[in-house]
Amino acid sequence: MAVSPGEEDVLRDLRARSYAEGGIFWVSDDELAVFDPDAAQQINTANFKDLVLPDKLGDLVRGRTGKPFHWQDIRAVWIAQMRLLSDAEGLAQLAARMTSLLEERLDRPLDLAWAAQEVSAQALVPVVVAGLSADDTVRVLRDQTQKIRHLVTEVTRETFWQKVIDVLIQVSAGLVVRRELRRRASGRLPRQLDLADPIVDLLPELGMDRAVDAVTGVLTAIAGPPGAAAAALLYELTRRPDWSARLTRELAPLRPADLYAAPARVAPVSHRFVKETLRMWSPTRLVDRSVRTEIRHEKACLKPGQSYLLSPDILHHDPRCWKDPDTFDPDRWLTAESHGACYVPGSRQSSLSRCSSS
Question: How many whole angstroms separate alpha carbon 120 and alpha carbon 125?
Fold first, then answer.
């Protein structure tokens, strides 16, 4: 992702203050930096413990409050579905889609950072919404490409009409999701093994507008962190030929089916390399959270209207958690030491960022 020099300066200053001030300090009168791993986990959990989705559009129009629907209920059905989607067969299908997308791009020069984002996002779309028609796939991918463009290119001031076009592209993708959910619910389309499908069963309570927000929120989430992680892996592989050779020696004799069934067990060297890359290069570097409810912590008290900062990047480079934190060393994972809340490669602290805005 594009990172400005100013952002690097901010992170450098925050990292220094975190080390000097114990990981928790006020950045301003209304913004608390929470870079202590245990405190970050506790405060974020407390802030989103009772998160509910906005009322249905019909209830809002009528000026009434509907029955609340807790975000944790959606998360629970998605976790169950992800167990099915991430089995050996699911990983094999994902790898096949990525291979196909990469082969389509081999006949032209590649910007590897862009290709990592594009291939990752496009390959993951069927995990979120499978079985789309060719035309609907184009509409969703156009929205994915727009989101990636905003992430990986330097920010420029868009014209009014460019903003209008961006909104229309986003609305078009939302309409695709709406039609898909409605047709599956009515039986006009078959059910699919994807993350949209459990939402169909929740439609009576959830309502169509909130259902569409939930699914499009995941489509937004896959256009960013997965591609950033892939780009970081490519970067480390190109600058570390010794590790690239080690991974090649380990992976070359493996059958793909064995790798998909138990990747960490059959490819431990590659597993360590991935873990260390995600520690060194956090897809989410800095997250700003609005305080939803009063939070009392032993080191600070937060009230609605205030905010707090989280940073997987700062946690991953905190010398209180890691020996030689700025050194790339996959073999640090050979020990059985647990880094607990200091290691948030999947950005657990930021996992609610898309959803809480839906």
Answer: 9
